[in-house]
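User: Design a sequence. Structure:
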């Protein structure tokens, strides 16, 4: 049996697809070990699963020369931990979901002769992907890349999605003209302060139009946002921080208003939702702007540049979408054409096929 180490940590944007991929590998007869970083020990879904979960102290890349010594020391310890896992658990290959948490494991794989695969969620390849792409068996892409990766074997597969979310997306949605439109606002489990401010300014006008809001404002922001909502408007607004089973809210929504992280746009596409995206302007390599541009060029999203700091533009675009069901229908069709609901299955099968065809892995 092929035992594969899936490495994912940092944020849900890496962990959630990693868990989905791990489940798909097991469904296809593979064996999975999961490796994340220490600060993710309490992350939902990383305990009580169908596979062992391990942790190590992978350091983020240093921001300056003063941090370099500590980085090297922690990196050496993390590489040693990963190599020990390879031997102790008889790991034959790695799949790394991106980000700095995979860096020590990839170094250990190079030292130990284990083959590895990379999953790149964003339209701009991250540093770890750029460093190891040429040596990877395959780099699985969620979106077309904005830059070349010379010498790498690339496959456009999409982003692995949770089985529960895919099951919900397969349900027949009611007609988009079923009544008052609904806007789903997703700022991430921690909330996005800028998005919250934009939405707070829109609430009175949305209420006057009979628009419902399903609004993830973040756990830490619940009290402050709730306290700023006029009492008479709270009936049309459902606030929440983190929520398991968020797929039910996707089924209710007519428009998704969010940042442009890979996870949220992958989920929006599979539900066929028109999107109004406000890319986070300080994301590494401005990758959210690149993600959003791909959806906009395909006709699935409208993009607002937050650097312009023009709330009027956001208001104008959102109200335009809400007032135009035919436009929303066209955007929904474009979103479904971009969706890759089979991503987890395709990647799992490709990894297992690659290892079976190569015999005993070696890199």
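Assistant: Done.
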């Amino acid at each position: 049996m092929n035992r594969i180490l899936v490495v994912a940590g940092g944020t849900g944007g890496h962990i959630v697809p990693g868990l989905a991929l791990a489940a798909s590998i097991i469904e296809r007869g593979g064996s999975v070990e999961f490796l994340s970083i220490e600060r993710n020990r309490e992350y939902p879904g990383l305990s009580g699963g169908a596979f062992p979960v391990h942790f190590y102290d992978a350091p983020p890349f240093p921001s300056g020369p003063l941090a370099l010594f500590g980085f090297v020391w922690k990196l050496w310890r993390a590489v040693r931990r990963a190599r020990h896992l390879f031997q102790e658990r008889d790991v034959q290959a790695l799949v790394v979901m991106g980000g700095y948490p995979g860096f020590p494991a990839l170094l250990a794989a190079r030292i130990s002769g284990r083959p590895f695969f990379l999953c790149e969620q964003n339209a701009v390849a991250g540093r770890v992907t750029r460093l190891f792409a040429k040596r990877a068996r395959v780099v699985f892409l969620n979106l077309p890349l904005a830059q070349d990766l010379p010498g790498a074997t690339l496959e456009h597969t999409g982003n692995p999605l949770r089985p529960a979310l895919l099951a919900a997306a397969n349900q027949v949605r009611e007609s988009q003209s079923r009544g008052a439109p609904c806007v789903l606002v997703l700022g991430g489990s921690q909330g996005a302060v800028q998005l919250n401010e934009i939405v707070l300014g829109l609430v009175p006008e949305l209420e006057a139009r009979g628009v419902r809001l399903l609004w993830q404002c973040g756990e830490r922001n619940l009290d402050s946002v709730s306290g700023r909502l006029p009492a008479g408007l709270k009936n049309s607004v459902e606030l929440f921080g983190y929520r398991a089973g968020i797929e039910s809210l996707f089924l209710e929504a007519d428009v998704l208003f969010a940042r442009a992280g890979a996870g949220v746009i992958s989920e929006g596409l599979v539900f066929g939702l028109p999107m109004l995206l406000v890319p986070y302007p300080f994301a590494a390599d401005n990758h959210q702007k690149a993600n959003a541009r791909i959806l906009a060029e395909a006709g699935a999203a409208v993009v607002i540049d937050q650097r312009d700091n023009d709330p009027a533009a956001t208001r104008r675009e959102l109200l335009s979408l809400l007032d135009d069901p035919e436009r929303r229908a066209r955007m929904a069709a474009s979103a479904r054409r971009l969706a890759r609901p089979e991503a987890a299955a395709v990647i799992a099968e490709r990894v297992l096929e690659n290892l079976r065809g190569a015999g005993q892995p070696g890199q």
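The chain has a mean pLDDT of 90. The domain at 3-161+341-358 is CATH 3.40.50.2000 (Rossmann fold).
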